[in-house]
Amino acid sequence: MADFLIYNTEHWMSKLSQEQIDEYTKKDPDFPRQYAARIMKGDIIEAQPDGFYTGDKARKFRTDVFAAVACPWIKLEDAKKYTEKVYEDAYALVFDEKTMTHSAVPIKKLSRKRRWNIENVVDTKLILKSSDELTLVDKLG
Fold first, then answer.
1. Contacts of 129 (CB under 8 A, 6+ apart)
2. Per residue, what are the HEC states of the chain?
3. Where are the domains of the chain?
4. Exposure of 21 by Cβ count < 10 A (0-12 exposed, 13-18 middle, 19+ buried)?
5. By the 8 A CB rule, do 9 and 43 touch?
6. Is pLDDT of 17 > 90?
């Protein structure tokens, strides 16, 4: 059994107009990647054991920013996969002072802060009875 902590507010970037996005992109060419990677309302932040956020001795959390969703039919081990971040392959230039040359080193760059999203969160604490009540969305398609 598992409790999910869900981001339950709009990120400031989600409120930007296309004109504002273009303005930020002029200042920072990496902004479109940051914009795509922003956390979004409904994103699953973490998975914890049953009752961690929704039980009698539940841990407190900021209810103005987050919501807790109890999913008693999901094992914690299975729930952890819904908290994964998404990375893409990229390269960083590294300067070697001995040879006075640059080389490209493969790195992982964050492309999405969260992969999984729960669309139908409406309450601060929600205890679901079955998977029919849950709409999980894979943001990678």
1. 72
2. CEEEEEECCCCHHHHCCHHHHHHHHHHCCCHHHHHHCCCCCCEEEEEEECCCCCCCCCCCCCCCCEEEEEECCCCHHHHHHHHCCEEEEEEEEEEECCCCEEEEEEEEEEEECCCEEECCCCCCEEECCCHHHCCEEECCC
3. 2-83+114-138
4. middle
5. no
6. yes
pLDDT single digits (tens) 47-63 = 999 889 888 888 888 88
Block residue for tokens 């999203």: 117
Beta bridge partners of 47: 4
Q: How far apart are CA 25 and CA 46, in angstroms?
A: 30
Q: How do beta strands 125-127 and 116-118 pair?
A: unpaired
Paired tokens of 58? 């539940």
CA pair distance 89, 91, nearest whole angstrom: 7
User: Residue type at 28?
Assistant: D
pLDDT (0 to 100) of residue 97: 85
Residue bearing tokens 């296309």? 18
How many residues are there in the chain?
Answer: 141
Amino acid (one-letter) located at 58 = A
Backbone φ, ψ for residue 19 (5° rounding)? -65, -45
Contact 103, 96 (CB under 8 A): yes
